[in-house]
Amino acid sequence: MQVPSTCVKRTTITLLVTLLALSVGCASKPFEPPAVWDGLEYRSGTASTVWYVRPGLEPRAWRTVMIDPPIVTIDERWDPIMYALPVGQGIAPSHLSSRNVAEVKDVIGAAVRRILTVELEAGGYRVVDQAQLDTVRLSPGLVDIYMDVPERGLAPWRRDDRMTLVMELSDAATTRVIARYVARETGGLGMLHVPNTVVQDPDFRRAVRAWARAVRTSLDELSQAAAT
């Protein structure tokens, strides 16, 4: 039996703003999570990862997953200069256009969704397009993305790149938010030269896979609790 396809209220933009306030846009500052966030209670965490869970949550055997297209935001201070080689003119600086930035965001969002799908299916979950009674809905957002670029030609680049994930989990049948996951990764996430170079980088993929596995582990625990 499928749940009617209704519009789920998305609070992702609010989450991103709150997250930026928590992290203060600084890669070196640890999270300072509040005890309660929109009715969700702080459950566990480290300097770079926190979990919030709804108190008194009744365990459910979620076996199917819907994944919303990730919302991707770039650090507003990010203004990379890509170096081109015009014929007969040597190396010339070129700022990314708004179209280039939009393409980068699309590529990153698609890669994150693809990796989430692979990891969840590897854990026995079925990724679906229509909500069912055993469906949990994931609404991911990637925030504060700052990517390294080569400073000139093939010269070494800085390794101060960063990105932060905020993931909202909700019961697709009731649209009730059940948990949020916030994780920050800094340094060594790949170099941006053309849009797809970042998502092909093994460090970028490692970070996203680690996030996906953390979400999968949480769903496993909830499903196991429901089965006992």
Element pattern in H and E: HEEEEEEEHEEEEHH
Counting helices, strands and paired strands, the structural category is alpha/beta
Low-confidence stretches: 1-9
Strand coverage percent = 25-35%
Radius of gyration: 19 Å
* Helical stretch tally: 4
Q: How widely separated are the two ends? A: 24 Å
The gross shape turns out to be: elongated
Helix content: 25-40%
Biggest sheet features = 9 strands, mixed
How many strands appear in the DSSP assignment? 11
**How would you state the average pLDDT, rounded?**
76
Please provide a written account of the structure.
- Helices cover 30% and strands 28% of the residues.
- The protein has 228 residues and is of the alpha/beta class.
- Strands 1, 2, 3, 4, 5, 8, 9, 10 and 11 form a nine-stranded mixed sheet that branches. It has a two-stranded antiparallel ribbon with strand order 6-7.
- Strand 1 (36-37) and strand 2 form a beta hairpin.
- It starts with 11 loop residues before the first helix and ends with a helix.
- Mean pLDDT is 76; it is low at 1-9.
